[in-house]
Amino acid sequence: MKNRVYIRQNCLVCCLVLVMDKKREKRILQILNILTPILCGVFIALLNVDFVGSLTDEAYSKLLSPAPFTFAIWGPIFIFQALFYFYQARDILKPPEEQIEMPYVHEVSVFFFLSWASTTAWYALWSLGYIWPAIGAMFAYLITSLGAYLRLGINKRDRPLKEHLFVTVAWSMLSAWVTVAAIVNTTTGLVSIGFDSGPLGESGWTVLVLLMTLIIYISVLVTRNDFIFTGVGLWAIIGIIGERLSPASTPAPDVTAVAILGALILAVLMLIWLIYLHKKESIQIIQKLRNWR
Prior knowledge:
Blueprint: H1 2-47, H2 53-59, H3 74-87, H4 103-108, H5 111-127, H6 131-152, H7 161-192, H8 201-224, H9 227-244, H10 253-280, H11 284-292
Helix pairs in contact: 1-5, 3-7, 5-6, 6-7, 7-9, 8-9, 8-10, 9-10
């Protein structure tokens, strides 16, 4: 009997320790998440360099470059990242007994501030003209963004509506955009070292990259039901079409045709998949909105 009581007491102590460790871990992650964007912003300000990303693209022109309007996507990305930033920190000043359960803070874990550190490194290196080190930083940005995306299990587990809006949307948009940004940055790097496109030519390689990009976004759509991720991919392809149709751009009819066809395929597939999931009542956000109403 005494042994049973002793075991129960030990189990209770272990549970309390785990809870305290989780709370301590959450508080540390919240503080790091709050401080990192501020520190990165200060670093960029102190760096005091003009961003010459557009000049680099002109120096190493390529058929995969998107039109300038495409980069307006950073507006919504920063808005939803800001929503996540404040949402995950809303109990930071409350005493331990009043803290809110936020499993997504543990899921995102270190990847929020690592993603900020990566993009800051990319900004600095790209601005200074270090193309390949900057590409390395961009892939670090991609890995950290996808790390958070995968750990969150977006559309793989049930969540409250607020978490969909304030957490998962931010990481879907960011991961989708950094995916295409890493691809475009890599093509810039290849052009900078005089990559020989061989018998395929620049147009042929660009078409292959476009097809690969299309496969990535379609795969995420059908495996994750992630229309936000796929929608960002569609926007990026539309940006490439816009650049190719610009009078100032190098003519590339095959690239333009494939990009237009890819955009149509992606848009139609998104519509078909939406109808399919709607009939199955498998779209979590729609179900949450119905319940909310």
